[in-house]
Write a structure and sequence with these properties.
Blueprint lengths: L3 E3 L4 E4 L3 E6 L5 E3 L2 E3 L4 E6 L4 E3 L2 E3 L14 E5 L4 E4 L2 E5 L19 E6 L6 E7 L2 E5 L3 E6 L5 E7 L2 E4 L26 E6 L10 E7 L2 E3 L1 E3 L11 E4 L2 E3 L4
Parallel strand pairs: 3-6, 4-7, 5-8, 6-9, 7-10, 8-11, 9-12, 10-13, 11-14, 12-15, 13-16, 14-17, 15-18, 16-19, 17-20, 18-21, 19-22, 20-23
Antiparallel strand pairs: 1-2
């Protein structure tokens, strides 16, 4: 799963392995799949008007990411008018190949459970993320909404439970995390939900018409500063947020 691992940095430089990669397929569905210990992404979805329903993704990604802000995702979404519902993601806490589980090198688990991104450079909209359960997550992000190369809009995140794995030295979600492997501070950016990226696409803002409601977040919720691309309309209501404050 890790094609190019550096013991000096504790990072995997090449990790492109996927269980399901879907592209150019409209009105398609991924249902009732079990995906276990894939190295990079479990499901990569680039088809519009589809549904991802009742899948279970275990220990995926199974390796720690390489480039800053990179790393794999259990589920990576880049599509329009997509429903993501009743999926279970858990057990993202593996060390990279060659590290022996000690994480004495600069292990940085830059992974996400569910990532919405615009890597292909086109605006995306109409994504509903409903009633999913994410738990036992040792990664940077539970849900990551990232306007990486274009804008994201009309996203509803509702009824989900996100439980990040807690460690005494790494429980906060920070926009600029620091690393001190010798002192035991690793993976300090542990966010139950985060909104990042600065590309505004055709909207003039990075993210618009975002609704976050009725979720349970065990971990910090991070909304970036205005200087990080800015928001349009945002509604946040009826969420339970544990450990840290919004």
């Amino acid at each position: 799963h890790c094609n190019a691992y550096s013991a000096g940095t504790g990072q995997c430089g090449t990790e492109e392995t996927h269980a399901i990669f879907l592209k150019d397929c409209d009105s398609c569905a991924a249902r009732f799949n079990l995906i276990d210990s894939m190295g990079d992404e479990g499901i990569v979805w680039q088809g519009d008007d589809g549904i991802i329903f009742q899948n279970e993704l275990v220990n995926t990604p199974s390796i720690r990411g390489g480039s800053a802000g990179g790393g794999g995702s259990a589920l990576e979404i880049e599509a329009n008018r997509l429903i993501v519902s009743q999926n279970i993601v858990h057990g993202i806490q593996a060390d990279p190949q060659g590290d022996g589980g000690s994480c004495t090198t600069a292990c940085q688990n830059r992974n996400a459970s569910v990532a919405v991104a615009t890597n292909m450079g086109a605006d995306i909209s109409g994504i509903q993320i409903l009633d999913n359960w994410l738990y036992d997550i040792d990664a940077w992000h539970g849900f990551s909404i990232n306007s990486s190369s274009a804008a994201v809009s009309d996203v509803r995140i509702a009824g989900n439970t996100v439980e990040m794995l807690n460690q005494a030295t790494a429980t906060n979600c920070e926009e600029a995390p620091t690393y001190d492997p010798g002192g035991g501070t690793v993976d300090s950016m542990r966010c139950a939900i985060s909104f990042t990226g600065s590309d505004t696409g055709s909207l003039g803002v990075s993210r618009d018409r975002i609704v976050v409601e009725g979720n349970r977040f065990k971990g910090t919720v991070l909304f970036p500063s205005v200087g990080d691309g800015a928001f349009g309309s945002v509604v946040i209501r009826d969420n339970v947020i544990g450990n840290d404050t919004l």
